[in-house]
Amino acid sequence: MNAVLITTDLRKDRRWHSRPLERGLLDAVHQVSVYPGCRYQQFEGFGGAFTEAAAHSWAQLPEERRKAFLDCYFGPAGLGYSRGRVHIGSCDFALGNYACQSGRSDEGFDTGRDDQRLIPMILAAQGAAGRPIGLLLSPWSPPAFMKTNSDMNHGGALKAEYRARWAACMARYAAHYRAAGCDVGYISVQNEPAAVQTWDSCIYSAREEGEFAAGFLAPALKEAGCGDVKILAWDHNKEILPYRAAETLAIPGAVEAVSGFAVHWYTGDHFEALRAVRSLWPDKELWFTEGCVEYSRFDGMTSLEKAEMYAHDILGNLNGGVNGSLDWNLLLDAKGGPNHVGNFCEAPVMLTEDGQDFSLMDEYWYIGQFSRFIRPGAVRLGASAWTAGVEVTAFENPDGRRAAVLLNRTDRDLPVCLTQDGAEGYPVLLAAHSIATACWGG
Fold first, then answer.
1. How far apart are CA 44 and CA 5, in angstroms?
2. Residue 74 in contact with residue 80, Cβ under 8 Å?
3. Rounded to whole angstroms, how far apart are CA atoms 381 and 32?
4. To 5 degrees, how large is the angle CA 420–CA 421–CA 427?
5. Which of 29, 67, 108, 442 could covalently link to 401 via disulfide, CB atoms 3.0 to 4.6 Å apart?
6. What is the pLDDT of residues 4-14, one digit of tens each?
7. Dihedral over Cα of 210, 212, 217, 223: its sign
């Protein structure tokens, strides 16, 4: 096989380096093996979230820098993103609370803020990508009047008498985005349905998610001409996913209505939970839909540690069986916002202090080691490594090209002999605290 190695070593510089890989002596001791005959889930793509904060920050840039920003994420020489996430109504990374339904009558439906900020950014991203950007829509909260606490923030629950109305609003939202030229393929029942937050939030039990999906959201989507939009449940942290999935799918009609489950990273790895759900319900999709560097939790981390946290989680999620991977905000200002409750975070791309340019953070370069080489439609292959110090995942793309991503988070250089079915050896010295992607075939 003719192989190329693409590496990122942040201790030296911030860019991708490419060099050909030459065959060498097979080293069974340091072997990293790829097994093309072992085939797992199909992967649909990488992406990030089009939040109001991201769109507001993007709009501040001069026109030529707005285009350059989109090329960094969606262009073929950038990350090659093909997916995105959009909040229905406001979220914490909005400029304030707002709802698409402001009153109790259907005439109050309003997407003005989406039309002004979010949809123009999405359409421009599609222009940079040269293809549609597949979208997942996720609500943070129903309108306040539909909730038990009469507040979009601080949790509360959807009142039973408003389930049909809220489902119709969500479906109408999907239809509006589609009419505007956006490719909506997924919708989740609720962002983080087990979290009472100071920002936009709403509580659903697992049973309530199943009832809402089967009894209200699926019929509403069909009525709105969006019956092909897939419904995801949970959209929260991984550790209790097997329990939530079991309870949700036990509701009559939920197996048919719920296409899969979405997860976040805020309570740790729990990659085994993904594998458990993949094993129990192999026909259901798994999507990673949110993770970020929260300043309130990770502010003491070095830039390299943040990048490695991203890579470790992406690797574990891929090997756990996810079908897609969506980062949080695509862009934030120099403070890590705007955020209407001060919940500031870091994005892989940040505005400069004057708001007239942007900087690529270290996690951007590490994400690229995956997203540039694992393309939509790729199938995960079996892979194993000689030591836990080398984390590895491997995929075959639709064009037959294969990619193996190798991560070394240790303090020492590690020798690697990359093999395919044990037939060929490509020696690589994987530097301490570096990441590499080997590409071959096709």
1. 23
2. yes
3. 13
4. 40
5. 442
6. 999 988 878 88
7. positive
